[in-house]
Write a structure and sequence with these properties.
Chain A has 161 residues and is mostly helical. Chain A has helices at residues 3-11, 14-21, 25-51, 61-68, 70-89, 91-95, 98-123, 132-154. The mean pLDDT of chain A is 88. Classes of the chains: A mainly alpha (161), B mainly alpha (163). The interface between A and B is medium-sized, with 32 and 29 residues.
């Protein structure tokens, strides 16, 4: 079974049909998805800005990591659930779309980097400036999340019916 | 010149028609608009949640606002510019849609909430700056701001479905 076959199968299920004809399902899931993205973006942005020394220089970098990076994990279930709803509602648009898979690859990379940074932040008990590698990783993660947001919107435009 | 004439003139300007008729300009601008909105809502939420009594990376509300709000304003500026460009591509149609009108009203209310907070509640911030148990006026401002900005997100998304 190819991905296209799998997408076709999902599109023929009762759940997919219900999601497509119930007008509020897709807009509601997209709105929740955007809000969850906002939670992730601010978590990563503030942590990254502190690691780069661009905000709150008097506050330990680990405080930012401990306070904000957990926001990524809080938002992730909402992103997954609403993302799955949208895939079920429009399976071919997502599963056969290279932009969608690029987004998933970037998401995996961003989450892996977040795990590394969060473990580092929670392991630090003294005030010290972050290692340049941590700062570099934080910028890469932020870049990944920006690209994820852009890919998310472009899915609608790169879909081949 | 009526508003309709003004919007019609706007959408017939070269940059507006380029956005409307080009294959990739509108998607790129829209993507940047979504990114900007997520940053506005995300950063303002840190301040709003602090006003509601939840801790942030700093105890002081004033210092937290000094840390975060410059980025909120930068993201908001990006959202306004990208939003204007999107609007200009079909100004007559968007201006007539109820979802767009409600979004603009919500933005105005969010701005008014911010002005009221700044000129009234913020004036005695020295009394409650470091307190997690913030005064009721601060909680109303924070809760109101959160509700308004989340509503902006909802109606912004609904514009796409109305179109």
């Amino acid at each position: 079974m190819t991905i296209a076959d799998f997408a076709l199968w999902i599109g023929q299920t009762q759940l997919s049909t219900t999601f497509q004809v119930t007008k509020w399902v897709i807009p509601t899931s997209q709105c929740i998805h955007i809000v969850a993205v906002a939670v992730v973006m601010v978590s990563v942005l503030l942590t990254n800005l502190r690691l780069a020394g661009l905000v709150a220089p008097g506050v330990e970098p680990s405080v930012f990591g401990r306070r904000y990076l957990r926001g990524v994990w809080w938002a992730l279930p909402f992103l997954v659930v609403t993302g799955v709803v949208q895939i079920i509602a429009e399976p071919k648009r997502d599963l056969t779309n290279p932009t969608f898979w690029l987004k998933m690859g970037l998401l995996l990379a961003a989450l892996l980097i977040t795990v590394v940074l969060q473990r580092r932040a929670e392991g630090e008990s003294v005030a010290r400036e972050p290692h340049p590698l941590a700062t570099g990783l934080a910028w890469v993660a932020l870049g990944c999340w920006v690209a994820i947001v852009l890919c998310g919107r472009w899915i609608a435009y790169t879909y081949t019916p | 010149m009526s508003l309709h004439d003004l919007f019609s003139a706007l959408e017939n300007m070269p940059f507006a028609t380029a956005i409307a008729e080009g294959a990739s300009l509108f998607p790129w601008i829209e993507s940047i608009h979504v990114l900007a909105i997520s940053l506005v809502v995300g950063t303002i939420s840190v301040v709003d949640l602090r006003l509601l009594g939840l801790p942030a990376h700093r105890q002081s509300v004033r210092q937290l606002m000094a840390d975060v709000l410059p980025f909120t304003w930068a993201a908001f500026a990006l959202a306004v510019v990208s939003g204007f460009l999107l609007f200009s591509s079909a100004a007559v149609r968007y201006s007539g849609e109820i979802t767009f009108q409600v979004k603009m009203l919500l933005l105005a209310l969010a701005g008014a909430n911010m002005v009221v907070f700044h000129f009234f509640t913020f004036r005695n911030i020295h009394l409650w700056d470091e307190m997690l148990d913030t005064p009721i006026a601060a909680r109303i401002a924070g809760g109101g701001s959160l509700a308004l900005w989340l509503s902006v997100v909802v109606f912004g998304r609904l514009i796409g479905f109305a179109s």
